[in-house]
Amino acid sequence: MAMVGREAEQAELAAFVKTAAGQALVLRGETGVGKSSLLGHAAAVAEQEGYAVIRASGVEAESELPYAGLHQFLHPLLADVADLDDGSQEVFDAVFGRADSDPPSVMTLGIAVLSLLSLAAARKPLLLVLDDGQWLDDSSADICGFVGRRLAGSPVKLLVGVRTDIASRFDTAALPELPIAALNDQDAAALLTQRFPTLGKQIRRLVLTQAQGNPLALLELPAHLGGAAIQGEPALESLVGDLGMPLPRRLQRLYGSRIAALSDAMRAELLMGALDGAGAGARLSRGEAGSGPGARYRMRDADEAVAAGLLEIEPATGDFAFRHPLVRSAVVQMATPNQRRAAHRALAQIHREHLERRATHLAAATVDPDEEVADILEAAAESATKRGGALAAVAWLTRAAELSVEHTSRSRRLADAAFVAGHAARLGQAHRLVQYGLAPGSTDSAASVLASAYQALYQDGDVLSTHRQVALAIQKLRDTGPTEADEVLTRLVNLLLAISQYAGDRAAWERTQALLADLGDLITERSRLYGDTWSDVIRHGAGSAEVIEQAAAKVAGQEPWEVTRLAVAAYHLDILSRFRPHLRGIVDRELETGAVASGMVMLHLIMLDQMAVGEWDGAQDTGRRVLALAVEHGHELFATQSRAYLAQLAALRGQLGPARDLQAEVDAWARPRGLGFLTQLADSAGATAALSAGDYETAYLYAIGITPPGEFRPYAYQASRTLLDLVEAARHTGRTEQARQHALAARDADLPKISPRLALLTYGALAMTADGEHEAAEMFALAEAHPDAARFPFELARIRLAHGIRVRHVEGRAAARRYLVPAAEAFERLGAAGWTERARAELRATGAVPRASMLNLASLTWQERRIADLAASGLTNKEIGKRMHLSPRTVSSHLYRIFPKLGITTRAALRDALSRTEEGPQS
């Protein structure tokens, strides 16, 4: 029978299906408005057009099970996985529990899903239809969004139906939408006439009033009200409730009366199906063990419910399915607590081979403390954490604590839940959990100290009181004699190390190191490694690089916070690139459903590695992303840290205004709090910005604020990183003795043995300050020939520029070009505007006229090239705007983007940059 009042929506869906290019579309509307009917219409059109159609449905009972929805969606295609490459097969094995390996990121899994869909669509076009998308688990919804945004040009299409009254991941998936509104009065009346032509006037008027244009209500109310008509209008109205009651609740009342009329056995069968998501996707026969996250119970002998209009039979499979999600909700609500628990126990037995699904049912089935069930929930939480489901892990650990027999087990599990919640950026929830776990009469515990210290550190940057608080808690644990495997002690120690790192204070670090020494064998090897590398790599980091590199090969399957701690150690040793592929592989997963705090640290580390290897555009995008996340989650410490890294990047690029603004913002927040880690970053950004502008006196003052010349201040981690900054600033301000003294201090401290970057900086500093040409050439050769020199292009270019200047004065102009040309080209590729201009000036001094980069020029849009030409001709922004119909501010914004592309910093340099684009290289 044709739908009434949906001609426009049907036409749009038909056009969606028949267009050649693949795409996605979200149908959004209230409960019962007809989304499912429209999805069915689209599926029918697709089948007529030769599509293969796969249908799936989100179910509330599975909304906490990672990848359950994805398994349901892909279940008909899983046989094709064997035809994919080994990497894609491993991805699906990890996600669906067929292999114990590291879960992939959204991007990695999304690409594998796209490959599988493309393989299936090679046989015939494919339409994926998802109903009730609001109930899809977050992990699956993220994959659907990723895939949906990348279907253009493929033979695959995606249709999703979601309810407007329930928030879901599809709200922010950035997919095209088709709103589905209620029927207008005329269409509502026409639908009622079409389906119920003999309906009495009284009931007809009441139905139209109550339904308010909702098709489901228009179809369900007449049959329900017909038997009450003889009792008069008040009786009719009492059956459906007043208009103030939400429509879903009024409809549930209608289904409730039908459910109540069923036999006890039928209601029990419906309850089993409702609690396990029956009737949508991959199913189980009764008694069959689970076979993946999408396996569901299969109802049987349910003809009675079909006759009552509660179930329907799926034509393709013959399975029973709920006629509408509201039927499922009504079944659950009408069951008694004991009935629901009995159904959950039976389902837990059916799913005994699937840990997480079994845990979900056991959590709901168990009332009294049960250590066996608590152990299962704890194991499920560990599994979820490693698969990127930290939020689900918090819920399972909390429930495990509630079911613990002993108070010690309860406190431990709540502490674990609080720990995971803290890393999932749920700091307030973490604190509440540990307070809930305190013993009667207790006012404090090690776990509560852990949670409150996390909150104080990350939200307000408090390193002074948190250091005292955590150190005292560690001392108390030491005095009570913890075992070697005491997890809370290890967590407290690692937090103390993080607090000490952010403090960047010698006294705080010495207190920390003394406390760790007192703990002896109670400290894990990992914690000792973190203490050595996070504190002062010059004094404690020698020999750690090999251990870190060995650990990098074994990070798969580890908790996300352990990965980030190892990666932080790798950063201090300048071997972070070893970890970056793994960080890239899991960061999206953690940001979406897992350890968000760890995910933000991962983004910081990725940004730092991007800056080190010269991927500055990518670093800026990463920095802005993590800044937005930190602000969103209230992690002001991470937000300020993001601003500090962005200040450093802006300083490198010669963007002096933004660099100084960000530097001032960081300094104003961090200095009063004693956050030496951040104030050193601010000073480093100040020194870099000043060097980029040629303001060497200011650069020197910033550099010696970090460490005096001739020494490397203990526990000041920027002291070694700013080695070249201090040396160059000292040389250019006539402080040659201080420059030489600092270079020799780096040599004497054996910095080349600590990390590859420090080796490059040390050799470069010694070359710059050498007393004779033989030493200068020797040290420069060591720098340039270092096997990792190319990994640090900015530092290598600085060393080449300085050596080229020296060679020009000693050996002549032609000899200098060998060093100045690659330096200028490197600065230009990086977008280091101030350094590019300085290198070009030195090249001109050798008689070579450097040409503007054709690559950078080609990156200008037509509009940018036109603005650059007009500005080079001498026109003002106002005059350019008048010619091009732009505002002066818009012209200024374009020029702000043009200058870095051309490797210049001033308007006066535009003419030379553009006029040299066609010239060949000078010899």
From TrEMBL:
GO cellular component: cytoplasm
Ranges that cross the membrane: none
Pfam families given in the database record: AAA_16, GerE
Source domain of life: Bacteria
UniProt feature coiled coil, ranges: none
Keywords: ATP-binding, Nucleotide-binding
Presence of keyword Nucleotide-binding: yes
Protein name in UniProt: Transcriptional regulator, LuxR family
